[in-house]
Amino acid sequence: MQRKRFTKVVATLGPASSSPERLRALFEAGADVFRLNFSHGTHDDHRARVALLRQLEEEYRHPIAILMDLQGPKLRLGPFAQGPINLKRGQKIRFDMTSTPGTVERVPLPHPEIFKAAQEDGLLLIDDGKVRLRIVAHTDDTIDSEVEVAGQISERKGVNLPNLIVPLSPLTPKDRRDLDYGLALGVDWVALSFVQHAHDIAELKKLVAGRAAVMAKLEKPAAIDHLDEIIEQSEGIMVARGDLGVEMPPEAVPPLQKRILAACRVAGKPTIVATQMLESMVHSPIPTRAEASDVATAVYDGTDAVMLSAESASGEYPVEAVAMMDRILRSVESDPLYRRLMDAARHEPEATTADAISAAARQCAHTLSAAAIVTYTNTGSTALRAARERPDVRILCLTPNLNTARRLTLAWGVHPVHGEDAQNFSDMVQRAVRVAREEEIARDGQRLVITAGVPFGTPGATNILRIAYVSP
Questions:
Q1: For residue 52, is it left (φ>0), alpha (ψ between -120 and 50) or beta?
Q2: What's the pLDDT score for residue 348?
Q3: pTM (predicted TM-score)
Q4: Fewer C-beta neighbours within 10 Å, C or N terminus of the chain?
Q5: Which of 332, 366, 390 is the endpoint of a domain?
Q6: Is there a contact between 26 and 164 (Cβ–Cβ < 8 Å)?
Q7: Active-site residues: which are they?
Q8: Residues 134 and 190 placed together within one structural domain of the fold
């Protein structure tokens, strides 16, 4: 199942994509990673999907990554007495923590954390920002606000606070139960919503304890103020543009996307660009030209992966959406400008043996027109270093660790293969040549650039570069 591209595709599973036939079609169409959205569905639903994916993995003998996405805290309005309320510009309205149903004068907001965070001139956005109110006064249990953008509000609508830091853990009791269940199922990545500080990720990593890789979803403006620390703590980053676009001006999101992707490439951390990428394909067999351009922009920016949400989870054309994403990615990567951008965005390697070897491997592969760079890795760090260099050939990653192989399906350009580790120099070359030929990555007469570490099996000890010929 070698993909003819470097950038990966993440497909969210849901009612439209949970049958064995549909999962197979999604995988064959180009999905590399499958997302389980724990905001929807039951534990039994997710268990059945994981079982089907593992069967598919065994059948195709190719690792498949499963990403569980935790719901995180949901800030919502309380009940209303007589249905929706229409707010007018300049109108004053109070929020409080009482359980009395809301009226046109006051609305219940059952979240004490919001009242702790409240500040004069702070913003309250309701229903994905359709209604905007500004805080004019507050106490420990009330918030008085003025309507700046009029509209209709109703019970259970979501509330966002773009310029306030809410003292709220991103891990709710539901998330903790879901996390235990997902880890027991053997998910490969865990994505955390509502991240505001690096210690949010640290808290999750303690609970995960190495059983999966941890990904931070950047959807809060507060997270951007701590971007470098969050990237350092995380093993991957998701640019969740939907919520970012609610809490920040829409025009601020594109440059922020570029900034995040650039910072993650320097750090060698895989990235996903998500939300509304091919949104019209929920109901249409083809995307708009603007959507195709949006996906292409993320690829030109150097993202590791792009993600489908409702398009593949509940849309009418899930397989077509994955196939379209695959076509867009291959089209961009065949553009000479793409290669120039990847080369121009390269950073100097760190002064370590492993980084020096990875940089040299990229240069050797280019100079020799090699078929691939082959990395031997246990933890995945060697393959991620190679991916950070954005070589113009694929990265064949050989690892004895199945969990590592699965996680690396998310990384740019990495084709992971699970198998036994090399025993010595001769075995290293022979395995690399044999697997490259079997996976149809190299053919007889081509060359491979091989990196590994001695002693074999020692994590983080990349210190060898070897050129090998593929011969009969």
A1: alpha
A2: 84
A3: 0.93
A4: C
A5: 332
A6: no
A7: 35, 76, 217, 275
A8: no
- Over the Cα atoms of the chain, what is R_g? 24
User: What residue numbers bound the domain in which 401 lies?
Assistant: 353-469
What CATH number does the domain containing 59 carry? 3.20.20.60
Q: Are 450 and 374 in contact (CB under 8 A)?
A: yes
Asked whether residue 457 carries a pLDDT value surpassing 80, the answer given is no
- 90: domain CATH number? 2.40.33.10
Structure-token pair, residue 229: 């620390």
Among residues 22, 96, 28, 2, the alpha carbon closest in space to that of 312 is found at 22
Provide the sign of the torsion angle of the four alpha carbons 39, 182, 268, 295, taken in this order: negative
Domain assignment of residue 274, yes or no: yes
- What pairs with residue 216 in β-bridges? 192, 237
Mean pLDDT confidence for 57-68: 97
Looking at every residue in the chain, the average pLDDT score rounds to: 94
Q: Please provide residue 325's backbone torsions phi and psi, each rounded to the nearest 5 degrees.
A: -60, -45
Instruction: Determine, yes or no, domain membership for 342.
Output: no
Please say whether the beta carbons of 304 and 410 come within 8 A.
yes
Instruction: Say if CB 3 and CB 442 are below 8 A apart.
Output: no
CB 450 within 8 A of CB 465: yes
Return the residue matching tokens 């009969």. 472
Q: In whole angstroms, how far apart are CA 438 and each of 65, 291, 298, 354, 424? A: 22, 37, 32, 27, 21
Q: In what order do the strands lie in the sheet with 131-138?
A: 106-108, 92-96, 142-149, 131-138, 123-126, 159-160
| For residues 383-410, average pLDDT | 97
Identify whether residues 302 and 372 lie together within a single domain: no
